[in-house]
Fold each of these.
Amino acid sequence: YPPARCRSPASISSAELLHALEQGGKPGVDFILVDLRRNDHEGGTIKGSLNLPAQSLYQSLPTLYDLCLAAGVKQVIWWCGSSKGRGTRAAGWFDDLIQERKGTESLQSLVLEGGITGWANAGPAYVEWMTDYDADYWKQPKESRQKA
């Protein structure tokens, strides 16, 4: 797939996303949460997120874009393990699509700073917002975890 033209997409911190959730923000309504890891939420993921593996994402972006517009979703938040590779690339691709289709300034593509690893290790307030959280998974050294 082509490299994203947007190499530095906008980001959202774990604290900002947690605040949005605590204030009643609804995944799938106010924003879309996308876990790009291919191992189907291994170790847990943020409640309400979709699992759209990065390896097959590119072709689905126009459909996701159309769904966001039809539903009035304002933000799509992307992550992988660290959000330094796949998360940034997916956010960039989606931002490219937003820019190509003028007139959608209200839709934002954001990468979650620190990825799901940062979220899972940020403390109990964050873990509370995870589905299928596995503390043992996150205690393992990164090299020991199955590549997600």
Amino acid sequence: MASERLSSILSHLSPTKSGVAAITTKNPDDVVITLAIRTPLTKAGKGGFKDTPLDYLVYSLLKRVLEKSRIDPQLVEDICIGNVSSAKAAYIVRAASLGAGFSTTTGGSSVNRFCSSGLKAVQDIANQISMGSIDVGLAIGAESMTEGGDRLEKPFHDEIIQNADANDCMQPMGQTSENVGKDFNISREAQDKYAAESYQRAERAQKAGWFDEEIVPINTILKDPKTGEEKHVTITKDEGPRYGTTFESLQKVRPAFPQFGDKSTGGNSSQVTDGAAAILLMKRSKAIELHQPILAKFVGATIAGLAPRIMGIGPTIAIPKLLTKFNLNLQTDVDVIEINEAFASMAVYCLNTLQIDHAKMNVRGGAIALGHPLGATGARQIVTGLSECRRQKKKILLTSMCIGTGQGMAGLFVNEQL
């Protein structure tokens, strides 16, 4: 503790560091991650969580947080859930946390920035810790796409949609994917080749057991759709990977949005999924005091906006913005990259436009193969990315995603488990 405080003082007296040297410096006031876990990801409507309501999924994950971290629940001052589809998310996180064993003194809130909600929750908790508002906080992302509820029920007011960009906020996500394919000439072949690689990576990772340390098993009830019989099950594995998927097999899949175009399909788009992830954060000094393992340092996150009709390219706006703030080079300084594969159209565009080494990006596959539980993805990427950093013994993790209505978000982390 004393040595880290001395290091902090000396860092203020010595010449300012920049780039990787700056973000990898350890100071007592750093916001760090001491636990990063997730549930399995299951197929919405027909998978292992099809009969599991959102409140029970959140409750189950919160219980696992306490079991895995062994932290005194009274020390956790706030829990923020990122969720897209449920208007009751704030109720759910509060009640589920109390049921799971957290104290009445632990606050609860919900945030919704569509597909970045999980990362937004992490940013919210990290900012509170950084500002001294709280010492310890928990960010979770959770979504039951089985329950649904994320679609617009009616158009915006006539005066609002007189603005073309505002009107484009109502475009279905599939339409925005076809826009990206058309506007930037991302061919069906390029999209299917990318998707096949995502499936093959996920298959390799699952067979090798790489996901095992990320996932906590969830006990739940599954109903037989024909008889209604209920049985107790333990869900332990992701259901999205389709073993044996090839470019040739994906070429046979029909377009999913023929009214908008012919490039995006059920095979090269993200899967509709149920799942949740949790990130426990505190200052480095607090983690040392509590004897909590320091997995990683939260460096920062940022948001960027763009035209809603091509929302998929959001990461190409958000990533340079974030890296510029920390004087980092994407090609030379970043080791592992997680970009959410909402659609292969945007994934291919981001890969090419940012000139990313594909060997660094979505090493274990992405949302095309694993699924995209909307509010959970931003947190799930951190769990997966840090696990991959540990496996490779690499330091710098970058996460990013596109966001409906025309936004992009990115987050930056330093793995400290080398």
Amino acid sequence: MSPSILAQPFSLRAESEDLPALSNYLLSLIAIKHSNLCVSADVHSTSALLQLAEEVGDSICMLKTHADIINDFSERSIQGLQEIATRKHFLIFEDRKFGDIGNTVESQYSRGPLHIASWAHITNAHIFPGPAVITSLQAAATSTLLSLNQSVSTEISTGTPRLSVDGSIPDSDHEPDRVRARIDGSDAPTLINSAPHTTSVPMRSTDQLHSTAAAGPTSATPEHSIVTATTTISQTISPSSTHPTSFTRSLSASSSDPSSALAMLGPPPHARGLLLLAQMSSANNHLTPAYTAACLAAAREHKGFVLGFIAQESLNREPGDRFLSIVPGVHLGEHGDGKGQRWRGPREVVRDEGADVVIVGRGVLGAKDRRAEAERYRTEAWKGYEERVERRK
């Protein structure tokens, strides 16, 4: 592992310009909330998911979900979770563990009843299908983010044109009053426009219709009004900085008021990120050192999309490595579950193994007071981080 990375505070790492924007954001969020805790939401209903998010949201930097085990997963689940994540300032990590050919994972990520790319900031994948799993997921993320920014504009034009000598209506002979509605409520600049579809319908006023009916079909052609509806489908990108700027200064200025620093941080960037499953916490798993090395090599080839690893230690082994290490298998007081799972304490995993974020599931879920237990885990993991940075100065 790279000792220089382990000695750096999260706030300093957050300012690195060679990281994906989502990594910068997460590191900043961790530094502001003093939380390197991710809770695993291994629950089976939307109500249980949202209740857990409410209870632990203030103590976490990420919530790990398993959408495919929630019996009633729907748009209500997504919208409710996004609202809580925004309010309590944490990222959503869908633990999908993609592992198939590129074409399949692209569809699994962006389509179907889960359509993960539309709502989860982060997901993960195995590398055993080959590097195409990374590029395919990245392509799906890009197309999904573009579609999320699609807006529809409708322009309605009305006016009373002057008739020509032959009774036709010259296009250039009227100055319409225009009303534009954007269904997304956004005033972001339009980047890609499709060809607009326009429909013009001649309309007669009520008085004109009455007079025409009284005069009969041989009366003179009445004056017309034109109503024109133009619908434009466009793509817009919400303005956002590529990397958060100077959070070290914002943190020092707001050290006594985390809410102020969180307000300065703002919402997550319009981006998606991938974690590679490089190591596992279960006994006798088949993720060999050679497999882990292959994951690391693939990550170095795709630094713009791969944020880091699900691992058991820091995998930053070369000076240029800046990957996040997300470590599961963490529990206070237990060492295993009798089903192959092995647990370690949060403090030792962060301090001694270089974990950036620890994932805790049953240690929090099984507690009588999950809010208090999440805070206990957050405190222990943060102490491990402080001890690591202090020891390596």
